[in-house]
Amino acid sequence: MRKKVLVLGANFGGLTAALAVKHELHGDVDVTVVSDRDYFLFNPSLIWLPFGKRDREDITFQVAPTFETGDVDFIQSAATAMDPDAKSVTLANGQVLTYDYMIIATGTRNRDEAIQGFSENSNTITTLESAIKTGEAWKKFLEKPGDIVIGASQGASCFGAAYEFLFNTSYQLKKAGIKKEVKLTYLTSEPFLGHFGIGGLPHGDQLLGMFLKKEKIDAQINASIAHIDKGEIVTSEGKSLPFAFSMIVPPFSGQDFLTSVDGLANPAGFVKVKPTYQTEKWDNVYAVGLAAAVDAPWQTPTPVGVPKTGFPTEQMAHVAARNVASQIRGELPMEEKDFADIPAVCVMDAGNNGVLILADKMLPPRKHGLMIPGPQNHLFKLGFEKYFLWKMRKGKITLP
Ligand SMILES: Cc1cc2nc3c(=O)[nH]c(=O)nc-3n(C[C@H](O)[C@H](O)[C@H](O)COP(=O)(O)OP(=O)(O)OC[C@H]3O[C@@H](n4cnc5c(N)ncnc54)[C@H](O)[C@@H]3O)c2cc1C
Fold first, then answer.
1. Residue 365's Cα: distance from chain center in Å?
2. Less Cβ around it within 10 Å: N or C end of the chain?
3. Mean pLDDT within 297-309
4. Maximum CA pair distance of the chain?
5. What is the bridge-based pairing of β-strands 79-83 and 73-76?
């Protein structure tokens, strides 16, 4: 009988893993994807959505046709519970699915509750809905400008998005002709500028410092937010930062249903995995992308998370798919790729400029790491968005 592989999540990790398992086994496997959303979202473009440079249709596509072409079953519903010993998952629609192998790629949720007043009084861009809401706040801000605070809170991990949004905001302020009258502050839990949650890169802090100075942006590093009130962020040190518009990247946690499975996830809900991306406790259950737990190899004065970006997510999904295929063939799952050893490849946009980040490893110690600034990176990011959406929609997951 054909083996059943169940994939939870249908974005970077889930879509890649599902189609890769099919590919590895030349179709000789039943793959089902379950996701609470019926669309793929290119999250990196959420930095542009609040400024009206993108709308929902530009950065999403329906996943059902992609899975149909790939001979993968798709169910739109949220997983609400799982029992790895019984090899079953319960869905919000009441269905109970069984599997031989499972790959968890359910991403994260915003841990709004970590910052008092965050959801009521600030904006973020980490989900489609929140980015749309931030766009409404931006329109109101343009009618009545004032100070702006943009940042990443204690425990946040998605620093790249905070920097991109910061520089895009500065660019938009110039375009609107109000840059001089707005005080722009970058508030971050990073111990130094350009740490990015990956320990920084050579000369990164000087480069970022230079950019901030050029854009007349005030920086507050090592910051921890005590609470956010209407129009005011108060740090743990009691410093008050008034704002007419703000965007804060909050800390993330794994999806709640994962925390209720004994031995599966860490207290923040991220699934504990081996370098094969098998879970520590169940050899037939894998986790990839944002859902997987990664420990930071450092301690910072203010807690800083590790960003699990798109490239490592795809890499993890391929490793997991190859290992599942090996197990189905009766072989040992031999492929290993520690998250820390995956190369870092990222383009950060700054409105009409940008920075290319390249490093031989996601986390230190590294042999090489460099940041290449320049307007070509903005164009590269635009091209990459189009290419990546095409690649995923067409299910061409073996392309780079
Ligand atoms: C604003 C922003 C900007 C970014 N910019 C970049 C960038 O420039 N470059 C880069 O490399 N990376 C960037 N990233 C990171 C990148 O988006 C992630 O690496 C990537 O999305 C991780 O993919 P994933 O599949 O693990 O998780 P996600 O993309 O979050 O997907 C999770 C999937 O699980 C589904 N799901 C959630 N809960 C359930 C449930 N209970 N049951 C079933 N399905 C569920 C969701 O619907 C979704 O399909 C950015 C992220 C953000 C938020």
1. 23
2. N
3. 94
4. 69
5. unpaired
Q: Following CA atoms 14, 47, 65, 81 in sequence, which dihedral angle do they give, to the nearest 10 degrees?
A: 40
Integer Cα distance of 126 and 109 in angstroms: 9
- Whether 291 is a known active-site residue: answer no
Q: Same structural domain for residues 228 and 287?
A: no
Of the pLDDT bands very low, low, confident and very high (cuts 50, 70, 90), residue 337 is: very high
Percent of the chain with pLDDT over 70: 100
331 assigned to some structural domain: yes
Query: What is the domain range of residue 241?
Result: 113-250
Task: For a ligand 1 pocket test, name from 8, 53, 75, 106 the mutation site with the most ligand atoms within 8 angstroms of its C-beta.
Answer: 106
Question: How many separate domains does the chain show?
Answer: 2
User: Is the distance from CB of 321 to CB of 21 less than 8 angstroms?
Assistant: yes
Task: Choose one of 301, 316, 340: the last residue of a domain.
Answer: 340
pLDDT category at 202 given cuts 50, 70, 90 is very high
Query: Which one from 6, 158, 161, 293 is the annotated catalytic residue?
Result: 158
Any ligand 1 atom below 6 A from CB of 251: no
Helix (H) or strand (E) holding 321: helix 310-328
Residue 263 in tokens: 């031995």
Q: Residues 253-274: pLDDT tens digits?
A: 999 999 999 999 999 999 999 9
- Long-range residue pairs from 364-371, CB within 8 A, at least 24 positions apart, any chain: 364/198, 364/199, 364/297, 369/201, 369/202, 369/344, 370/201, 370/202, 371/194, 371/201, 371/203, 371/204, 371/207
Give φ, ψ of 390 to 5 degrees.
Answer: -65, -50
How many of the other CB atoms lie within 10 Å of CB of 237? 10
pTM value > 0.90: yes
